[in-house]
Predict the structure.
Amino acid sequence: MQTRVSEPKTAGAAGVAPPQIGRRYDFRRIEKKWQDEWDRRRAFDVDADPDRLKYYCLVMFPYPSGEIHMGHCRVYSIGDVVARYKKMCGYNVLHPMGWDAFGLPAENAAIKAGRHPRDWTVANINRIKEQLHDLGMSYDWRREVTACFPDYYRWTQWLFLLMYRRGLAYRKKAPVNWCPTCATVLANEQVVGGACWRCETPVVKKELEQWFLRITDYADRLLDDLALLTGWPDRVLTMQANWIGRSRGAYIDFPLADGSGERLRVFTTRQDTLCGATYMVVAPEHPLVARLISAGGPGSEELRRFAERARNLSEIDRTSDPEKEGLDTGLRCVNPATGETIPIYTANYILLEYGTGAVMGVPAHDQRDFEFARKYGLPVRVVIKGPDSPGSADEMTEAYDGPGVMVNSGRFDGLSSEEGLEKVAAWLETEGLGAKTTIYRLRDWLISRQRYWGAPIPVVYCEDCGVVPVPEDELPVMLPYQVDFTPGVSPLARSEDFVRTTCPGCGRPARRETDTMDTFVCSSWYYLRYTSPGHDKTPFSREEVDYWMPVDQYIGGIEHAVLHLLYSRFFTKVLHDAGLVGFVEPFTNLLAHGMVTKNGAAMSKSKGNIVSPDEITVRFGADTARVFTLFAAPPDKDFEWTDSGVEGIFRFLGRVWRIVHDLGGAGGAGGSPSPDEADRDILRSAHRMVRKMTLDIDRRFNFNTAISAAMETVNDLYRYAESVPPARRSPAVVREVLEKLVLCLAPFAPHLGEELWQVLGGEGSVHDQRWPSWDEDLVRAEEVEVAVQVNGRIRDRVVVAAGTGEAELRELALALEKVRPHVEGRKVVKVVAVPDRLVNIVVK
RNA sequence: GCGGGCGUGGCGGAACGGCAGACGCGUACGGCUUAGGACCGUAUGGGCUGGUCCCGUGGGAGUUCGAGUCUCCCCGCCCGCACCA
């Protein structure tokens, strides 16, 4: 994509139109003027510079599904403020933008509109780019990446092959999640509560041969390295930890009692309770059950019906059904610790996918097992005695799952349950019956998609050579344009031209893989591509990546807490292991922003509650749109859209425009040379504003309070202008205050910032200036009002010199007329004096 | 069920354990105007006996000289995970 305006570089500010003298904040003229100027100067292009500190500010790239709304406006405004602020702080700032341009919505919309997904996507991209341009976003458009273009997906495919070479991409037949509406499979992360994350259709299980990425190989590191992410919100870290779901325990093999020598393997985190296992339970889909059914013995018909019923329940019903149903399979096995023969049940509360799909039932120490045992009359045996737990099974009304001392456990009696975990595992190992192990909730990442609009998986199937990866020098495997992409079977399978190929190994006819990759593969590495978008030897230049990465500030929605953010971490670790990058985590700091809602719901086309930034920019301007979305709430919170609030911001920017013209235009002529009290006050206001805005932006991204600090100083300026006649104003002070104000507002309202910087006669672009500093001594008030309390109730206030000591405050307070009646006749127990704050007199 | 977050005016939201409600919206009144839905100013948590008096941060207790803030219990809302062995 070409940028919108790309005229040759010309002289700088000299060519800029002079500021307009008038009484009106003419945002249309101002914004157009500066956008043109930025385009002409290519003001936002950046290059690596080893002599300068870098700062990589990144907002999650959008899916170009149409026009953008105020939610987008908000998040890009956040990114733009951070980028412009950091630039003013002296950093070499990378602030790129691109398009997560492959994906189902393009295909679905294209089918509906009768347009090709590519054309639809490109049209949307152009439209959104225009909108971002009109909002004054400071992107280096030379670095734009578009995931659906061959020069990008070539490298997505290359990375797939890297994974393949490293044994991390593999094909497997497995029961997978199928969304009937989207007509494709989904990764586990893309199933929310048993339904498709996009269209909320309940997913069904299908047995298919598919491509997976072995993310589970990285489960430990993905979990452990969360500790490195001190700049991430806790809730995201928690969500990832939950998702990975590491569970340490042991597997145990229970020999079947039929003399076959076969064993039934379970996973448990409580091997210390082994002697309390009085029965076994397997999932209805467990192979053992299937075998019993096909063997056709007594009871097999009942078993078949039971397994059928469980299987036919959707994922949602299965996991939300609290009633435990079970059935004795008739099989028996031996508890290796007690030598007892115990029954094997099958039950609906056992999940095939988790652990081994079988558990040992320890009713005394697991609540689910307890309920199940009571329902089916199975024995309950206490093997752990907690400090307050009942000693006998008969007294139990619920399971005891806490720690305690092992009882009824033979050789293990007397051990603490903690020791028992070790000792039982050691014993199992010497007996060859089990060992300690760790399992995860995380599954391998299913990346095959039976749809058209994605990056083709670069492999070929040859009758003789089997699965053959496409050689790197033949990449990209181009996605053909002319394809019947209506869903059904994989659309690419219908394109004979695409499918038919020759085997890279033996040269004989072969067939291409016709599935495409999950778009989350494309978005797992785009942040690397921004560093060197034209690079054509590898996905990215090592040198550029070493300079720019990791991303210093990543900004995006909480909905990707697990999905995109987990996948990207995985990719980064693989690239690190492959020696392609030097870091192990891609995103140092993460800001999870809130949504902009209207009528209580996130803005979306389907809900019809979209407010377009265009509506706002036309009526009030881009600066108003930006400042309002930042002012309405702290960035991590949702906020409900209101039109009336927008006008308030428009008023504020108009006030800024006018006060700068009134006080600062024409060089701020005349005035008194020596600053008086009013001058000191307004100067203090400005220094306070700088301090507050700096800390609010830097420390916690509270742009709302940063903006309110600027509003306070503007209010102070109006009071100053009204109360101090021109002849008595100090030009130096006025100038300093106005400069600080304009510099501080520049990242928020960049067009107005440039214009007013010019009005003040500033050199060059306001965005090339240094972020202002403040003087702590000036910030401190000369006089402060100290509250005087008696027993915690305010009785008076007194103005004293700032920094007045405790002793003096105490005396002052006790002498106050309004205080005396409350103190007289009582005993002063204590006086708490906090300088510059308050005095609290405690009486009895 | 487990984990996390949140509850403050009519509204969005501010408050290192130290004067609750900054800032903005809305509302009311005044000014300026031929006019204004522009602009400037003043007021704006509630109550009454109009005192810088009392009450007020979902409810209740506690710690403290002092609690929106810390602790415990309860109520309500939101999010994540959820029969995870």
Notes: The first helix of chain A runs from residue 27 to 41. Chain A has five domains: 52-147+218-234+523-641, 156-214+444-520, 247-439, 644-779, 783-843. The mean pLDDT of chain A is 89. The domain at 644-779 of chain A is CATH 1.10.730.10 (Isoleucyl-tRNA Synthetase; Domain 1).
